[in-house]
Amino acid sequence: MRPLGVHTSIKNTLLNSINEALQLKCNTFQIFLHSPRVWKIQSFSVETIEKFKKQRKEAKLNPFIVHASYLINFFSSNSQVVESSKKLFLEELTLAEELEADYYVIHLNDNKEIEKNRIFHLLNRIFKEINRETKKCKILIENTAKGRITSTITEILNMIYKVNSELIGGVCIDTCHLFAAGYNISDDTGISLFMDELIKSDGIDFIKLIHLNDSRTPVGSGVDRHEHIGEGYIGIEGFKKFLKIREFIHLPLILETPKKTLYDDIKNLNTVRNILKKLES
Q: Which residues touch 281 (CB under 8 Å, ≥6 apart)?
């Protein structure tokens, strides 16, 4: 069965994320380690961490993904933000490793005032400064809706080659970001162009995870606004086409669709399961 899950909550307890995933009948899941909009990372007791690892193993939730804080910005013009970002990055990655996460997904912000090769050099140096005994948890670079370094397939793969860090395990493709960046994955022509670029860049094996989200804005908007599956500009027919891409049928799917209550996750998961069921029949 293809891994399908959502971004779950650690509200009140870290273990809540596993409970939510099981309640939603998921076989994979993603979490934040703390509020993504504050700099302070919370700590968990050894007992809680061990319980989490045990319960996750028993539940067979694989892979387990940690998403980086939105505040991390290695290329800010504010030096304090850069230093705080490095500190939080290391703290999050260390905790993700302790929790035995498979992947740590991060967005890389751009800064037009910094030359691209300089950005690659800075990122390479930051990764080299990280000294961890184990490297099971791999970093996945997520594509963005706009920017010079991660908004196109060619750019994001070029960045990975230039940075050349063993910490980077590959790429997380977000369908909303892909669409907003100009890849019209709602039709066959757009999907063919996307796959052609991926193949020409030798990028197939780099794609490890898919964030499955519809887009509230039109193709090429450059605006990152997630929408419920089938209710945005990609639409049900678009997801039917995207989800049958042969090279991706083994990849885990994580939904980051809008959520006011757990029912929203149920609705979106059911929509995706119905699409997958029809594709497999």
A: none
Residues (pLDDT < 50) of the chain are none
Angle at 5 between CA 192 and CA 40, to 5 degrees: 110
81: tokens are 């933000």
- For Cα atoms 187, 191, 195, give the angle at the middle one, nearest 5 degrees: 175
Which residue reads 């307890």 in tokens? 13
- The token pair that represents 214 in the structure block: 């519809």
Residues in the chain: 281
What's the one-letter identity of residue 250? H
User: What residues pair up with 29 in beta bridges, in sequence order?
Assistant: 6, 64
pLDDT computed for residue 134 by the predictor = 63
77 within 8 A of 40, measured Cβ to Cβ: no
Can you tell me the distance from the alpha carbon of 112 to that of 147, in angstroms, rounded to the nearest whole number?
9
Q: Is the pTM of this model over 0.85?
A: yes
Short-list 75, 63, 69, CA closest to 3 = 63
> What is the spatial distance between Cα 145 and Cα 216, in angstroms, rounded to a whole number?
12
Q: How many C-beta atoms lie closer than 10 Å to residue 25's C-beta?
A: 12
Token readout for 120 is 């690659």
C-alpha 198: how far from its chain's center? 18
In the prediction, which pLDDT does 42 show? Answer: 86
The C-alpha atoms of residue 142 and residue 67 are separated, in whole angstroms, by 10
Collapsed DSSP state (helix, strand, coil) of residue 1: coil
Cα–Cα dist 165/106, whole Å:
15
